[in-house]
Design goal:
Mean pLDDT: 89
Radius of gyration: 18 Å
Helix content: 40-55%
Pfam family, one: CbiA
Order of helices and strands: EHEHEHEHEHHEHHHH
Shape: globular
Number of domains: 1
Distance between the termini: 34 Å
CATH superfamily: P-loop containing nucleotide triphosphate hydrolases
Organism: Ferrimonas marina
Domain CobQ/CobB/MinD/ParA nucleotide binding: 3-121
Protein name: Plasmid segregation oscillating ATPase ParF
Length: 240
């Protein structure tokens, strides 16, 4: 499957979501994963390079691609069980190409006016993509939300704006937490730094909701089977 993390507004946490999604699929779901960095700033490519220098972390593969990448993504999908595409915060040829072939598109937005102003154009991009890729499952997700109770209305209003364009909006969201930046700086993921923390729960909820209960359950079963195999080998060779 191909999962695009995209949108038109920088600073909404696209790279952070793409990186954590890749770790989630590789570590917790035991899938073969390829990260594709389409941002000239190399945020995700540099992050992968930093994490692969830490032997205790799950190694990830990453390539940079730009321009007409539709065929390249399709080729990668034939060799990896999951291809996660990180597109920069602008309307690029690479993002349009990714939308035309992706199974899922995760579109992060902060509950801010300047982010919400991009929704009409994203709707236009999605409508164009659906002409070539009718099976595309796209959804907005609210990120970096304020946690103060008196700001809850702001989050609901932002969701309402997105829903008015008849685009799916996930119930799950992320709140402003230092760990998102701290883990990225360390070449790690939120789920590796604090696996039982609130941020890790937020991300798992987003990924499971995006992929759907059926897909999420399949991934969970695959992970459970892999754990059972490891335990069986440990018992067989007396290393448990």
């Amino acid at each position: 499957m191909i999962i695009l993390v995209g949108g038109e507004k920088g600073g909404s946490g696209k790279s952070c979501l793409a990186q954590n999604l890749a770790v989630y699929l590789a570590s917790e779901c035991q899938l073969t994963v390829m990260l594709v960095d389409c941002d000239p700033q190399r945020t995700t490519a540099n992050w992968v390079q930093a994490r692969n220098e830490r032997p205790e972390l799950t190694k990830l593969h990453c390539v940079q691609m730009f321009g007409k990448i539709r065929d390249d993504l399709s080729s990668l999908a034939n060799h990896y069980e999951a291809v996660v595409v990180d597109c920069g915060g602008q309307d690029t040829l690479a993002q349009r190409a990714a939308m035309s072939v992706a199974n899922f598109a995760l579109l992060p937005l902060r509950p801010k006016r300047r982010d919400l102003q991009t929704v009409p154009h994203i709707d236009e991009l999605l409508n164009t993509s659906l002409m070539f890729n009718p099976d595309l499952n796209a959804a907005f997700v609210m990120t970096q939300c304020p946690s103060l109770p008196n700001q809850a209305k702001r989050i609901l209003e932002a969701k309402s704006v997105c829903q008015s364009w008849e685009i799916r909006v996930l119930d799950a969201l992320t709140y402003q937490r230092n760990i998102y930046d701290d883990s990225e700086e360390a070449g790690s993921s939120v789920m590796e730094m604090e696996p039982n923390g609130k941020a890790a729960s937020e991300l798992r909820a987003i990924f499971n909701e995006l992929l759907g209960e059926a897909n999420a359950r399949t991934l969970e079963l695959r992970y459970a089977r892999s754990v059972q195999l490891v335990e069986r080998e440990e018992m067989q060779y007396g290393i448990g």
